[in-house]
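Hello,

Our lab assistant flagged a job as stuck in the queue for most of the afternoon. It eventually completed. Since we weren't sure the result was trustworthy after the delay, we are filing this so someone can double-check. Below is the sequence as submitted and the structure that was eventually returned. Let us know if re-running is recommended.
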Amino acid sequence: MGAAYDELYFQYCQRWAASDPRSLDELRRFPAADVLVAKAEAWLSAIAGQPFFLWLHFMDPHAPYYPTEEGLTILGMPKPEASRASYLNASWNRFDIGSERLRRFRDEIVCLYDAGICWVDAQLSKLTETLRRTGLWENCIFAVTADHGEAFLEHGSRYHAPALGEELIHVPLLIRVPGSRKKQVCSNPFSMIHLAPTLLAAAGLQIPGEFQGENYWTHMRDGAGWSKPAITECVAGCTNPYSGEQRRKPRLLAVREARYKLVLNFDAGTEHLFDLESDPGENSPLAFERGNLERRRLLEAALEHLTNSARPRNSDAYLRTRLREIGLPPGNDRLEASGDASFHVDASRAG
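-- returned structure --
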């Protein structure tokens, strides 16, 4: 009876109680890619001749999925009614029904998501043309990447909840540097922690000593590979990174080579080794007695990463972060910090 009531209430809210939206633009929560690119072009024009760093964060391929009409046209899809798009997003966001019922909405939701990607792609093309026209293209480094992928019922998941499946962590990375060699594709996994030092090296700038990432620019420039695996990690069960309590939960950690991937769950105390060549969907982890050499190699890389991440590189930044988490302002006269970023506080004031 409870499930029947929930279904009736959902249908009532979506079909009868809510007013019909007039357009997808009305439903969209974030500025579309063309808005951001237009502002970027105006800003570039205003700082003409000056060195610059420009960062654009496009939200079109992000839930809720309300693409532009132009993005749907590029994809070759008819424009859905705004009310249908609203119903699809609300249905996709339900957590009171199982994967089988959600699957009926999957194809339409994926089309909305893909249309958002198409529109971002078109606007990136427009931005590069502007850079060419203004003479900046041959004097700037251009990088495109993503902070995460999106799940569409792979492993029963949606959106980008804390998990380390390939659908979430295998994202594109494109780097264009003037004067570099011809276009090449690298199959070596690359951790995003290396992106900042790599871009700084490509620009001929100094890399701050506290950066934990490594510079891979020489490898990329010379078309050489690298052997180190990519490390990806998140906090198990953390749905709100702004919550200090959630951030202190055990972590999930993945160590990925071109073929093999080891996933460690410190919350559940499990480890799973996948052969991505024979099992790209990560549906069947290798039996524990298989892949001993690969398992050992990836475990050693995980241990090295955990050891390094426990060693603070910037004690001042680490201390300020810990102060914020316990609710104390920086510079409190009852706090004593040592050089290794350990600290002592009056428990009565820490609350």
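-- support follow-up --
The delay was a queue issue, not a problem with the job. The result is valid. The longest strand covers residues 230-235. The chain has a mean pLDDT of 87.
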